[in-house]
Amino acid sequence: MSPTFRGLLASCLLGWCALEAAAVDVVPLDVTGAVQPQVTMGDDGRIHLTFGQGQAIFYTASADGTTFSSPIQVGRLEKLALGMRRGPRITASKDTILITALSHADGNLHAWTSPDGRRWQEQPPLNSVPLSAREGLQALAGDGRGKVAVTWLDLRTGKMSLWAKFSLDGGWAWSEDRLVYAAPDGPICQCCAPSVAFAPDGRIGILWRNLVQGARDLYATETTDGLHFSPARKLGQGTWMLNGCPMDGGALAYDPAGGWLPVWKRVRTVFASDDATQERKVADGAAQPVATFLGSTPLIFWESQGTLMLQRGSTPPQAFAPGGQYASVASRGPQAVVAFEGTAHGRKTILCELVR
């Protein structure tokens, strides 16, 4: 038995064999420059994916995770915000697919809605103050039944703060802008993407990197109505004193029972937590974590030394995709999906893979 085969067999016996299908290149071979994928799953298990290329925003979908539709151009924005967790975002409900994206040129948060993924209608800018969203960092989530939340970094007061907007019909109509959080003595961290997620009971969790007296730590709040937000809570026991932005905002997921799982980077280590005040180390030499749940089992992805890594539950981490970066994850029922920037056919592209 070869060493390689013995290693693979050992991995399977330890429960590492989470992969059911090879990664799929979702971008046509003649298309280059596709970056910053974001993926979501409908209640029917259908996979919806968006990405950016130059100034264009694209959409593609798959019923089974192995064959994707030809990407459709949803819209174009001058100086489309891309890179370092900037890029379009997506969510899907029974009747509506929603994509949001930001322009560095006009500083606005734009939105497109579609009933079927083929016909797209652009909505008015979501931020009510022009130019206020020009940093280009946002997060979008939905409950799959029409409730939607979008949050973004905003400069309307002259200091970076976190704002949000909410919809009850998949993104056709929206609430007023709502201030989620403003730091007590200055801006929040200026270049780290926020996160937003829905719990099964309807709670909406929002995560961001704060800046308080030089400490750039992750904070979180929850809301049930989009009007009232719980007091901001610092995550974890440690702190990160840093004179600069790490451009790594962490991520947030909820399990089927409503328990939450924030993941974040501090210095060169990725942490996770089941409780806001406690933390556990996931990996050293790690960055850009994202998380979801496969049933009640947490899946945490992160980047380490040029490789996209995966930890499934409490099993040891495994190398998931050499060269993979900027992962986006989603799950429904017995399967999850991860999309990421990778290499195929000798070019940089968007890859998508099922995890069961």
What can you tell me about this protein's structure?
The longest helix is centred in the first third of the chain and has 11 residues. A hairpin with a 5-residue loop joins strand 18 and strand 19. The N terminus is likely disordered. The protein has 356 residues and is mainly β. The two termini are 27 Å apart. It has a 4-stranded antiparallel sheet with strand order 1-28-27-26, with no helix packed on it. Strands 2-3-4-5 form a 4-stranded antiparallel sheet, with no helix packed on it. It has one domain: Neuraminidase (6 Propeller), CATH 2.120.10.10.
Essential attributes:
3% helix; mainly beta; four-stranded antiparallel sheet; globular; 46% strand; 356 residues; Neuraminidase; disordered N terminus; 1 helix
The main pleated sheet reads as: 4 strands, antiparallel
Radius of gyration: 19 Å
The dominant shape is: globular
Helix content: under 10%
Question: Helix- and strand-based class?
Answer: mainly beta
Number of helices: 1
Low-pLDDT stretches: 1-20
